[in-house]
Amino acid sequence: MANPSNVDLMSNTATNDLAVSIVAAGNAATHSAPGSDHSDQTQESESYTHGHHESVLRSHRARNIANSAAYLTSYLRPGQTMLDVGCGPGTLTIDLARALAPGQVTGVDAADIVLESARALATEQGVNNVTFAQANVYELPFDDGSFDIVHAHQVLQHLSDPVKAINEMRRVTAPGGIIAVRDADYGAMTWYPPSEGLTEWNILYHEVTSAYGYEADAGRRLLSWFRAAGIDAENIQPSAGVWCYATPESREWWGALWAERCVASNFAVQARDAGLADDVALEDLAEEWRTWAEQPDGWFMIPHGEIIVHV
After folding, report:
1. Is the pLDDT assigned to residue 33 strictly greater than 80?
2. Per CATH, which fold does 4-310 belong to?
3. Are strands 173-184 and 299-310 parallel, antiparallel or unpaired?
């Protein structure tokens, strides 16, 4: 299978031009299903739908500025400080640190395992202006106005209270700085050839995220969430971008990732725990992904909402 760093797996376009791990501190592996005796959803222990299975981390490691933050490039200046919320394994964070050097970049996430790998990657690549720490997006451990840029990629869709998280990100952004957010929109995803199986997968994904209190269609809601946080429209610059999987290499990569996620990631755990799917149904969905990936004219597009906010 082709290495995503060597093929054009994620084409990115935008109207003006994806860590991700959940940032609220918690343990996805021990989070109980809705309706169980221990199912209280707190903002300190929210369960990341995708989890940190290797099939998830492989996609996170493919992210960089070009394919996941192109809308932000015109705002990046050497010497700026940045907080990257939901940094995951750190690939995108480290790329941003290169662009901002000698400015200091801080990546925060909830999962120790991904933070350890992020630190190791920064050391391996010789990037010295980046640090990683565990943090809760609702209670960031930084003073007011600490960062020139606060960035979150694929984070708000996994939070039960995105508006509260936005307000906390705004608190730690310096006057004159910016907040930059990008989230996918599952309801607007499209594919070819038509597939009842992928339609069933998309419906199940929405059911799972809804059962746990999250919003799968976050991309289209970014503007409304920032407005709900009290930010004036004149300070908000919305845009949109896409990932497209349509080459043989990218179809194989993306289809294999989701086939594995359907049976082995936290998505599968949550679907089973919430009583929304059993092992047979999940394996059927995995097979639908493998079938789609084999189609010579297969196409899968993921639209994203993007927001730049001037603080």
Report:
1. no
2. Rossmann fold (3.40.50)
3. antiparallel
